[in-house]
Amino acid sequence: MLDIRYGEDRHVLLIGRLDAAQAAVAQAFLDDVAPPCVIDAGGLEYISSAGLGVLLKTHKRLAAAGSGIRLVNVNPHVHDVFRYSGMDKLFSVTCGT
Amino acid sequence: MTFKRSIHELQAIVAATDLFFSERCIGPALRLPVDLSIEELFVNMVKYNRGTHHDITLRLDWIGDAVEVSLTDYDVEPYDPTRAPELDVDAPLAARRPSGMGLYLVSKMVDAIRYEYRNRESKVTFTKSMVQGHA
């Protein structure tokens, strides 16, 4: 399951699994987010291409407004997905400590 | 195991994979690449094999130090996911589209993948080992 909501400092908290079944939920939330958009992915356990598509669409929308998305606290396994897909070349993806 | 042709079956697939991994004490390093590859292949069958109403069969085996996974779809036209086009991961933002990322990711995250088509059955089998590959 996926939990997406605002945390401290208006960071978006992304928790759980962002798969094809949850992509619409994430997209509906992110469609209302205004820049700058920092997504704390410390609780994100899993992402598939459907989830990457949601982030790509959101980044394109916000980049057109002058500032894209930034992902922080990404776990190493999830980071592999961003690296293999080349998404880490489109927006900032930072691993957690 | 068989699953209905719906993305809402992903939760049940994850539960089945959870059980498979925990019963065999398989480490977490294999989990994401196996989950991702199952999801991408399953969703691809659901989205593009529209002319059938059969359930999709998922089989997981632990062979040596590798997980072997197969997905079989019945009464369908052939489509070989191992021949999906390469993704240009260096393309600029304006040129990037979500489509095509799924099967490309599978090709990068598994150790081996093969496709068989016989008697209108499409079967995709992949392996992911503890020692090979990055993930």
Structural overview:
The complex is a heterodimer of chains A (97) and B (135). Chain A has 97 residues and is α/β, with parallel strands linked by helices. In chain A, 35% of the residues lie in helices and 34% in strands. Chain A is built from three helices and five strands, in the order ββαβαβαβ. A five-stranded mixed beta sheet of chain A has the order 1-2-3-4-5, covered by helices on one side. The longest helix of chain A is centred in the middle third of the chain and has 16 residues, at 49-64. Chain B has three helices and five strands. By secondary structure, chain B is an alpha+beta fold. In chain B, α2 runs antiparallel to α3. In chain B, strands 1-2-3-5-4 form a five-stranded antiparallel beta sheet, covered by helices on one side. The mean pLDDT of chain B is 93. Chains A and B meet through α2 and α3 of A and α1, α2 and α3 of B.
Radius of gyration of chain A: 12 Å
The total strand number of chain B stands at 5
Question: Which structural class should the secondary elements of chain B be placed in?
Answer: alpha+beta
Helix content of chain B: 25-40%
Chain pair with largest interface? A-B, 25 and 32 residues
Q: What global shape of chain B is seen?
A: globular
Regions with little confidence, pLDDT below 50 for 5+ residues of chain B:
none
Quaternary form: heterodimer
Strand coverage percent of chain B: 25-35%
Sheet bearing the most strands of chain B, described? Answer: 5 strands, antiparallel
Spans where pLDDT lies below 50 across 5 or more residues of chain A: none
